[in-house]
Amino acid sequence: MSQQQFENFTASTLYCEKCRATTPVREKLLLVLPDREIFDYLCTECGSSVGQREVTAGEKMMAEAVAARNRRAIPIQSLR
Ligand SMILES: [Zn+2]
């Protein structure tokens, strides 16, 4: 399952089958859903899609919380 690889890290280079090489990729916001955002990775050489990544609302909240912490402390109300 090559799909599994994409879920665990944010890649700046991925293997492109068309180019038969590991190439730099461009992250493009593909779809925004109420609970997640889906990003498409496009090969910068040929423009074909080489992978996708899902960012769940929870992950996005964490990222925003970290960013917000650099400005000022905010109360986290939905922490479980
Ligand atoms: Zn390519």
Description:
The chain has one domain (3-69). It has 80 residues and is of the alpha+beta class. The chain starts with a helix and ends in an 11-residue tail after the last helix. It has helices at residues 3-8, 57-69; strands at 13-16, 21-32, 36-43, 49-56. A hairpin with a 4-residue loop joins strand 1 (13-16) and strand 2. The mean pLDDT is 82. Bound molecules: zinc ion. The site of zinc ion has 8 residues, from loops.
Describe the SSE topology.
Elements: H1 3-8, E1 13-16, E2 21-32, E3 36-43, E4 49-56, H2 57-69
Antiparallel strand pairs: 1-2, 2-3, 3-4
The chain binds zinc ion.
First-last Cα distance: 31 Å
Fraction in helix: 10-25%
Rg computed from alpha carbons, rounded to a whole number of angstroms: 16 Å
Give a count of the beta strands, DSSP E runs of length 2 or more: 4
* Topology as a string of helices (H) and strands (E): HEEEEH
Number of helices: 2
Class from helix and strand fractions: alpha+beta
User: What small ligands are held by the chains?
Assistant: zinc ion
How is the biggest beta sheet arranged? 4 strands, antiparallel
Per the principal axes of the C-alpha atoms, what is the gross shape?
elongated
Number of domains: 1
Average of per-residue pLDDT values = 82
Strand content: 35-45%
Q: Strand sequence of the main sheet, in spatial order?
A: 1-2-3-4
The unreliable regions are: none
Record keyword descriptors for this entry.
binds zinc ion; alpha+beta; 4 strands
